[in-house]
Protein 1
Amino acid sequence: VSAVTSDPSIPLQILAGPGSGKTRVLTSRIVHIIEHHGILPNEICAVTFTNKSATEMKVRLTASIDPERTSQLILGTFHATCARYLRRYASHIGLPNNFTVQDASDSQKLVKSILSSFSEQLESLEAKLDAKSCLDMIGKGKSMGKTPMSMEREAKVERNPVTLMVSRIYAEYESRMKATDALDFEDLLLRGAELFRQEPWVLKSIKHIFVDEFQDTNVTQYGLLKLFAKSSGCVTIVGDPDQSIYGWRSADIENLSHMAKDFPKTKVILLEDNFRSTGAILAASYAIISQDQTRHAKGLIPFHGSGSPVVLKRCATEETEASFLASEIKRLKICTGLEWSDFSVLLRYGALSRPIEQAFQRAGIPNRMAAGHKFFDRVEIKTVLGYLQLADNPNFSPAFARVVNVPKRGIGEKTLDNIISSAQAANVSPIKLSRRGKCTVKISTAARSSLDQFLKVVDKLKKLADEGKTVGELIEVLLKEVDFEKHWKDDKWEDRLENIMELVCFDSPRLVCSLPSSSILTFPPSSAWPFS
């Protein structure tokens, strides 16, 4: 109650743990200030970190005050809020109101084109600098308020040639965007801050600023908060320092301390009642997080009972761990009557799903990968397995169809269909029909040459497999022989490679090629799958 009704003229920090109802408290405080302190909705700015959070807050506010007043609130993400003001007042800082917001893919294409003009300088660098890594460095620099000139000065002081090169690319990047009246997402914050500093009157109507998930704010975003609160000094932030996980993208947890100094009368209220988790889970999490001696002291008080104790299970191998998970889920389902959908398994990263998926399949536990593909459904895994399957069984035409044009070899869909149908008519494998001197399908000279290279790779893998090479060794050879990175020209190559290397870790002297032809996910019953 005190968090909702606290005097709005006093800066307020609401530090709330997970499951403590902080979104409800934030929206309730906005309603309270409107209805009891005479502040109009259009005099309140509420900033969230995601559009989803903004939508949720709008729905809750609409349920408490009428839709018309809710629509008058300045409510949205930092980027959307700045864009809203820039669309109206951009001309005051020499920017046309109809500027274009450039998305991430457009930015990456622009940096890539700039890199080509720096090719000679890039060759002298020992470190590899691609468009994505360069854009990441530019974005991080912007989030910390760095200009191309300040980044260049910093690089010279640190004698860092890579940062120096990025600073020059950054300058050209800014120049080209300016020529086309474009801004990227970081520019929305930077140019917004520029507008508010040069023309503070545009924020004069704001009498209270709210910021959700304050622990995730960076230097630029905290600067925006100060600009919004400059005339009134009225600010409410909600956050949980224990959930600050975005340091890698320049979030600054010290902003909590900065706020206490910049707003000397700041009041701190702790929300420690947890309505989401059991006491056992909260006790375990607190035992871990409380070891951080620098954290802001706060606890979590369970609303529910203690519940089942948390279990720490140590396993010798990932396969043993996966088997334990499968058996424990089946046991709990039988004992408690829970449904399969009541269980979830959290992973550090997607590539770890492979042994768990296998264990679940063997145990007959239905499962799906949330926010991603199943391990064996991923295109890079199906491609690698396709090559290995052909090395073991050249007659397996689905694998041939899947990988013969990966990377692109100039073999069109019609030509591929003709090869497979001709092979079926001749009662031979597509690979055998494709060999020089035996192919009855018309193929261009360039495609013929590429097809020969493909067959050479498959033959090499088969020879090594016959010599007893392990799956891991075969995959490593395949990665050297085939330029998959060039084929998958996207920003996910590192993730794809990580998944492929997970296959390498699952080593065995025999191939994965005994997988049923109907589907990679149709597992045979053998406990030794997939090397039965």
Protein 2
Amino acid sequence: MKLKFITLLLFASSISILHAQSAKDYADAYHDLQVFETPLAVKLKKGVKKSDLNKIKNPQVKATAISLLNNQYDQKYRFAEYKPVLSPTALGHSLMIGDGYSKYENMTGIYLPIGRHIISVDHISPENNVKLIVPNWNRRAPEGTDPTKDPKGWGIVKQEFKLNNGINIIDVKNFDGLAYIDYFSDEPTKETPISVHFIGSQVNGYFDIAKNNDQDWDNLIDHAVYPIIDAKGKHIQIAYPTADIKKYAYGKGVELISNYDSLIYRQHRIMGLIKYNKVPDNKILSRVNYNYYMFRDGDGVAYMGTEPGNAMPLVVDPARVIKGDPCWGFSHEVGHVHQLRPYLNWGGLGEVSNNIFSLYVTTSYGNKSRLSEQGNYKKSRASIIDGKISYLQDPDVFNRLVPFWQLQLYFANQGNNPNFYPDLFEAFRKQNPERRSRRGDGQVMGGRGNNPAVHQLNFVKTASEVSKLDLTDFFDLYGFFHVDKFTYDDYGTYTYEMTQEMVDMCKQEIKKLNFPKPSMDISTLAD
């Protein structure tokens, strides 16, 4: 399976659209809405007659009013409350990760074709910036263009509309799509829900595992008016083609979303988010794309939805999601979202520390260890330990992964400390809870660091403190104390510079702790 971590060049683009409508447009809209009790247009005034409704000019408003008069208007999805969601950026600062959690949390189940729509809103506070988002889930590269060389990149192209209290008249242009309410806050518990009415809009619906069952899932598929289905679990959010869902997961909605939730839950577990009660309400977005087989960008995880390289059979079939390559691929890409910066994602670990999650999740489901299958335990010993180099100088990212995974093998078994990594992640989060601050070395927190050697030594020392073991002999074998200066590329250029003074200081600090040595040579462990 070819896996790739997509850089900022492939992040989403958007089309910001302001209200270009005239004062007359709004005057006409409010005039049409006079038959309703409030501009939210969810209830007619008492005494309104059909003759009054015949005077309404806007066809959607008129149809809505007539349906209300006849007690036939279905408000489900069209009218709902939306609560604020913790900003992915604020979440990233809190957990010391990027901002890769979903930016499409408040799905509406509404489909908006190209054209004009009236949306009524209430309870937006003056200080809040709330938007309506219409992403183009169906976007393809221009005809005759290599999809991987799409001039618009691989990210999400979307239309954005600022929402205000009262009537909002929007013009959806260029492409149709599903609607999402962009309502994020750094302190969501202090904000109030907003009310939104998509007056007379078409309903596509969505699946929510907290409320729906497989019968609802099938009904959603059978009555979809847009070729993409929205669904959400406790930790996952998907936007996949309706046709593929019907082909590979019909009658299996609960199983599919539960499996995805479980995959992310296991990453939360090794990160210590469960033990330390820091599991976010935010979700990871997994979506279809038509540019590349599989990648992760600033909006989550994306899978190819067409040939060549159609990944949908692998990621829509719930039985396959937790097995083999699909399980590894999803865990690998979500692992990128969860990499701690810079404490476990310094230069050289871009395609390494995310695979701690991959190994943990895949083996927890009974899948074979990729390190064992590929012979990386023997390869890393020959290359790194016998070659007396830094693990960072080994070009094979799986060889670099071996020492990090051997720590898990030891502490989960012989070391009798399955909470080693959960405690280690929490220790790193405590080392600098405010990532916006600057360190003495001039590094802005949240990046991957200037000198990888600094963070490497911090890892050695913190791992020893958390485990209450002197791990210097183990780390010495893999070149964590390798004195040298060299430059390399890892989604950016890094210069590793380790001096003997840095090594001596770290070892002395650990020696002062008077911790015992491990009960065995950890470097001999394998799955």
Protein 3
Amino acid sequence: MAALLQVRNLTTRIRTSRGVVRAVEDVSFDLAEGETLGLVGESGSGKSMTGLSLMGLLPPGGRIEDGSSVRLSGRELVGLPARELRAVRGNEIAMVFQDPMTSLDPTKTIGHQVAEPVLLHRGGTRAEAADRAAEVLGLVGLPHPRERLGDYPHQLSGGLRQRVLIAMALANEPRVLIADEPTTALDVTIQAQILTLLADLRARLGMAMILITHDMGVTAGHADRVNVMYAGRIAESTGTDRLFHGMRHPYTQSLLASVPRLDQDPARQLPTIPGLPPDLTGPSTGCAFADRCAHATDRCRTDQPALTGPPEHRFACWHPVDGPRPQGDLPAVPRPAARPKSVPAEPKREAAEPKSAAAGPKSAPEAVDAPDSPARPLLEARGLVRQFAVGGAHLPGRGRRVVHAVSDVSFTLGHGETFGLVGESGCGKTTLGRLLVGLDRPDAGTVTLEGTDLGALRGRELRRRRQDLQMVFQDPFSSLDPRMRVGSILREPLRIQGIGTAREQRARVAELLAEVGLPARGLDLFPHEFSGGQRQRVGLARALALSPRLVVADEPVSALDVSVRAQVLNLMKRLQASHGLSYVVISHDLAVVRYLADRIGVMYLGRLVEVGSADDIHLRAAHPYTAGLLSAVPVPDPAAERAKHGTGVSGELPNPAAPPSGCRFRTRCPLATDRCAEQEPAPRSFGPGHTATCHHPLREPVPAEPLPASA
């Protein structure tokens, strides 16, 4: 097909205080009408900067070098006067940005922001522009679009805000759409809806699309061809099927191997890519991937390989591979160690005792019985309820509006066990996690740690017990104090609890940093001087400072690249084994939870709708919501992804301040009947430890055992 967009030798430089960044280096490709080209790679590989260069939206200090060419329908865009480029941007070529909350103006209505590009490029009256805004909002599936014109961005969910961004980009029916990580911050269910929407719009409007993502599963199902980028260059370029089943570049092979999959063996460590991407302000010699590549030779470090091969499959490597990496040689995950019997009566000074660096690896604690009873779980949650008032002060004669964040949730957690919590944003996962570690108090119900009701504790006893409960937050950048150096951040809980002398505390902090795989010089750095994956390691180190028994990890890898994600997941399993930790892992990614968890609880609108072993949830799901979540998980297999088109959970999560009657999932369930609206389902058994609350389950429940005859 004739190329709609032709990019030749695109080279972008950004002048910063640290030097000149080689953001994009000699990138060339064609894009045909109706085609989707995937741009994949780690953060810093040049994907987004390539898209911004095509749009002429470079940051301060950015410049497209001479010799670069971007031609749209034969018209050269590089060097075009700003006035003429503005007439093209948003009209013939448009972009959907990664974060809708920061891309939308919080002070302007949805209708104004969608109508604005129509007025700028097409003219007409404001009424005509508003009509077009309502039309295009309906096109992208926004419910009641005309009624939403007066809403502000904060009044919409993440999925609806992303639809508004897409509507803005499509308002003038551009010929090329650049989608930059359009689903990164979304749940898998909403992600599947947005990607299906983009594919349908592309087919309906005949657009060409550039899909920028680090999610290989998303690429597998929605790209016709793929360019793999590394250090600003194209490392491999070919069709989607060939890339996933017959890749030639070691970087592509490593990226695909690092993806957690639902069928991943949790007893084996995830493959990882060692090291970090190169600093693009330094000199460029040899292959940029050489320092992280297992196949590299001296030639790789001195000679830059060119992008060679037939047009249908080009790659830049001196020592190409042949297909996916074998999985059979992966090391086993170490088994969790047992923990000491109970918490001492005084503050745990021994937790801060430094160990000699020459002592070698830390040995596992001796196995002992759990307190009081070997069968007693570490943690018990019983009937937890948490509600939040909304809408201002309570007025006489009016009912008080409350958000039902957690509604009658009960489960147990064993010693050394990992319990996964999955569900969409707004289902109550994070609130439940905060209740478990004592950062919030339930309105009803109890949290019991080794037989002790945490809600009944006060003062010193509560502070002592809370050493055993720690939390790793979703965004390490916002949860770490930007004014404190990492050494002070890690030492702070030891000082507050009065554990150890100053010398012992410093030794403990150095030990923690080494344990999570960070260099000793990191003690003197601030959080912003670390990468995202390194900051998450700092968060893990802080959680371990007081030698806890339970760690609640809230979306610990959701914001990380796939390669860094694998490193952090392996680290979490290693730390669990060496410290005898129990985890509650909160995530909307079932593949991550499947890899980490022994048992999984599926939450929907504040309730646990299904609980079972990882195999029960993955292979024998009983609740329709669980099955919908599983079908929405992107998998790095083009054939499997294309076969899933249109499956998953439809619609938006209902308002938690006014949950549906009966079964809360009924408004989105394909199996719902009148009974579902009238009667709330009770938990039913589907095997040992496997329960689900559904009137019309996907599996036959296990018959209840008859009660013993009375004497």
Protein 4
Amino acid sequence: MPLNTLSLKDLEFHLNDMLHVDRLCDRERFRDHDMDVFQAVLETAGKIAGDLFEPHNRKADLNEPTFDGKTVHIIPEVKEALDAYIEAGFIGIQHDYEVGGMQMPTSIAMSCSAIFNSANVGTSGYPFLTIGASNVLRAYGSDEQKKRFMEPMVEGRFFGTMCLSEPQAGSSLSDIKTQAVKQEDGTYRITGNKMWISAGEHELSENIVHLVLAKIPGGPPGVKGISLFIVPKFLVNDDRSLGERNDVSLAGLNHKMGYRGTTNTLLNFGENEGAVGYLIGEEHKGLFYMFHMMNEARIGVGLGAVSLGYAGYLYSLDYAKNRPQGRHPDGKDPNEPQRMLIEHADIKRLLLSQKAAVEGALALCLYAADLVDDEKTSTDEQTRKDASLLLDTLTPVVKSWPSEFCLEANKHAIQILGGYGYTRDYPVEQYYRDNRLNPIHEGTHGIQGLDLLGRKVVMNNGAGFKLVASRISETIDAAMKVEGLAPFAHTLSVSLEKIGETTQKVGVELAKGNVNLALANATPYLDMLGHLIIGWQWLRMAIVAREKLENGTTADADFLNGKILACQYFYRYEMPRIPVWADLVGSIDETTFNATEEFF
């Protein structure tokens, strides 16, 4: 069945017209590919997602996994979908040919991820985590570890997880208690508990490879003493066959409001003699290694939020086109036929708000994915350095802005459906519940704000912010020369200058040592900078759309004019929020800082 949860046309616009991914085919790693291959991969993803993922999205939500004390039970459609996913090679989409991978660019892999997430984020969670874990092993695992654990993951025989949080330590990883004691044979015995572990137990694969953060006794305190270990559900023999069950057990399933198709677990390591673990890389560098997985995962979380927002937008758009409801304010004759919802100005506002959020955030996430490709495969050293710095600076925004504002888009989708919107007869309420998890996944919205304002925009004398600003300024200069876009370019320029001044004011407070006060409004700063970045993306899209229209691209005129209209909406309805945020953050407002618990 056709994919109805994401626009493949929009994906093609970003990949072909915005990012020009065909240029990647000139690079050594992607030389065997061309645009026909990329298109075929996207179409295959769309077909599998439409045929096997989307049809059981509701069923998996209504029939979440259960645990009978021995085995986790999951509806059979999940495995059927994942088997097709594996057979098509998507788990190894970015891995080398030598290990059975497809050696595709990150931008293509992320586009496929968006397709599957939009169709069924619960089922997509299993390969999403497996891909992330296999990428860590590809980057930091030994040759033996890659052979024993990574290659079976690429084959789809083993799945993977990331085990960070503990019952007493969620985001505060310096407070984890899981320990790893070295043995004479070079392995470690892992003991402790891990909470909120997605895909932590199931029967969907032969084995589960847990990547576990733990502390080695005698190591440095805090995060500097954290190491990373491979802890498989089943031990693996030299020939990659399965050995005995490791000392890893499921203590129970957590029941979340969304992502119900993905098991979420409390795992106990070492209830008996200790779970066998294998050190990745060097001792005490675990957080550095895991952040490799987490940074790519953060782009994935942002893109997942986009996908769910997009699914809700498309469903509410179709509903609005086909649902008669009410009359215009000047329609006083009750005998006149009702108007379709989409004819009402406020419904158009809700649709434009969704469109501006999801398409703008999609542009940002794919821009970030393209930066990953430049960082890893460009032959130009400066291009690689710039891509790395841009990624480091923008990743908190890439993760968090879509998670907040594409969730807002899901709220608008429910509103358009009215009373039907919050019933389970329609999918928009599930999209909202599923998406509500993303502001928490991979670092909460507040933590991303602290990272952005406390580190990313001020590090190295603001080098990252300056580079982002220079790229935005290039777009402003280009837009000034395009008919109808100069007012938007002016707004973006004023906003950029205002945020630059605000960032400097916070930097002064940080330099004085007033860290807690200076970062008290880090979250509004994140929202503000995020709006600037999305406004930048919309101006980039409007430039391309206008150029294509001027070059006589009439077949897609409605699509392209829709881009320009959504840009206009974002600049007139959303960009005015920036100076309000800037005034608040730049004043080093003390309201939240001075609120003591007695005031509540």
